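For the sake of transparency, this paper describes our internal protein records without simplification. Because each token names a local backbone shape, the row as a whole describes the fold. One such record is reproduced below, unchanged from the form in which we store it:
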Amino acid sequence: MKNRKTEPWRIIIFILSLAFIVFMWSKKDIAAIYATMPPEEIMPLIATTLAVSALKVAAIAVAVFFVKWIIDKAKK
């Protein structure tokens, strides 16, 4: 098995993504929202929240990749 070295930008993306998701989910009082909703609306809300979180994390990843690309171009 190859000895794979994790690049720093991957660690940065992971930390930013994790922090962003924790911030988003803790900012909302999700338990209170779900407790007051009808049961048939809970699953669509969870799916929508997860999808929006994934899209925002993807946007963060693209931004980090773009900054990495600019830095790599500047080094050349």
About this structure: The chain has one domain: 8-75. The CA atoms of residues 66 and 72 lie 10 Å apart. The radius of gyration is 18 Å.
